[in-house]
Amino acid sequence: MDFHLPDEIRMMRETVARFVRSELMPLESLVIRREAERGLGDAPLIPPEVEAELQEKARSIGLWGIDVPEEYGGQNLGYLMKCVVWQQLRYSIVPFVLPPDSPNLYLLKQACRGDQIKEYLEPYARGEKKSCIAITEPSAGSDAAAIETRAEWKNNKWVINGSKIFISHARKADFIIVIAVTHPAKRAHGGMTAFLVDKGTPGLSIPSNFAMIGEYAPYAIYLDNVEVGDDKVLGEVGQAFAPMQNRLSVRRMELAARSLGMADRCLQLMIEQANRRSTFGALLADRQAVQWWIADSYQEIEMCRLLLYRLAWRLDQGAHDFRLDASMVKLQATEMVQRVVDRAIQLHGGMGLSKDLPLEYIYRVSRVYRIVEGASEVHRWVLARNLLKNGVPAD
User: Fold this and answer.
1) Is residue 285 situated within a structural domain?
2) Residue 24 near residue 34, CB atoms below 8 Å
3) How confident is the model over 258-282, as pLDDT tens digits?
4) Residues 316, 308, 386: CA angle, nearest 5 degrees
5) Do 62 and 42 fall within a single domain?
6) Cis peptide bond upstream of 100, omega within 30
7) pLDDT of residue 309
8) Judgement on whether residues 71 and 45 belong to the same structural domain of the protein
9) What whole-number distance in Å separates Cα of residue 49 and Cα of residue 71?
10) Regions of the chain short of the pLDDT cut 70
11) Are the CB atoms for 84 and 90 separated by under 8 Å?
């Protein structure tokens, strides 16, 4: 087993690190100010014109289409490469995302057929169209199998009715992947279907956003007799649950990589503060409590990094069912970053709570990660249920 990253991934990591230092970190004070000032609204934290400039600069240095297949104009560099890029980008608090957003790319690659490839997958892969996925409902959060949105076949059309909540990027999306029940008796076992619903489709409305902790501003979506043709079915009728779960697993892997990037930043700030700050005649670096905070944080970061890289490597080797590994790495990394940032704030004292440093921002953003894409408790339940049924995996 080789635990060293390949040279091409190391080179990409350095490229992204330079991009973060030169382009993203100078914008951090702007992001903190805009997040504080937007209040209950949904104003983007990166101004649109700045976002466009960042995208062009990223494209010019090869940070584009990293996991997009070559036949769709991408580089097809794999998930381990993408994880390293995600991690490095999140060293900065600037919420810059390289298009296309990978989880939906994974689902579209798997499920698009016929004209859907040219109409949705290809422009999405090129960054010309944006998408979101609508799963969560008022009575169905981590339990995606409990959704109530219905799609019925009437007069040669699918008619969709229902509501979704906490849907990220809904107003920016050119199309929405809507998960609906098409066979209530079967549900997760052959009764859930994915639909491609274009922006502006009659009956589709996005009336409000939710004012949330941190950088998130998700939306409510209502579907009132939304009619779509059979050509808008994504994948097979009734077979959306397994592809949806794998798509969620890719997002969980991404959240783990983001958590690692934020934890790396917190650890670096801790080391700098400990070597600079003196109290009662001695450096913080000489205090045993501080030393243990730093030692524990480093160990926890490295353990999560190995878990994440192993999962990404497995995907690059062709793994198809990686839900348990994704649950484990998401659970461990999102809880790890909360412990690390908490120690970093404690070490910095009052300054750690101020908006002069990125720590309080990281604290609030990372707190979201323990709930979205499956709460920690649900992932523990999933892991335990599988182990109790099947035992410990051989490898």
Assistant:
1) yes
2) no
3) 999 999 999 999 999 999 999 999 9
4) 90
5) yes
6) yes
7) 96
8) yes
9) 30
10) 1, 102, 395
11) no
**CB proximity list for 100: less than 8 A, separation 6 or greater:** 65, 68, 124, 125, 126, 127, 131
Contacts of 39 (CB under 8 A, 6+ apart): 211
* Residue 338 and residue 346 in contact, taking contact as beta carbons nearer than 8 Å: no
Name the pairing type of β-strands 192-198 and 175-181: antiparallel
| Number of structural domains the chain divides into | 3
Dist. CA 185–CA 199, nearest whole Å: 30
Residue-level pLDDT at 1: 61
What is the reported pLDDT for 285? 97
Find where tokens 């937007």 sit: 38
> Range of 301's domain?
242-390
The CA–CA distances, whole Å, from 286 to 5, 267, 271, 349, 352 equal 34, 16, 12, 17, 20
Give the pair of three-digit tokens for residue 64: 């584009």
CATH number of the structural domain spanning residue 195:
2.40.110.10
Q: Which tokens is 289 given?
A: 């409590």
Annotated active-site residue in 137, 254, 335, 373: 373
pLDDT in tens, 82-114: 999 999 999 999 999 988 876 899 899 989 999
Q: Which two tokens stand for residue 372?
A: 């979205």
**pLDDT score at 101:** 72
Tokens of 309: 């890289």
Residue with tokens 């906490």: 166
Q: Is the dihedral of CA 107, 216, 208, 174 positive or negative?
A: negative
- Chain length of the chain: 395
Q: Count H helices, E strands: the chain?
A: 12, 10
Q: In this predicted structure, what is the pLDDT of residue 242?
A: 85
Name the residue with tokens 């793994």. Answer: 319
Q: Which two tokens stand for residue 369?
A: 């990660």
Residue that finishes a domain, picked among 216, 239, 262: 239
373 labelled catalytic? yes
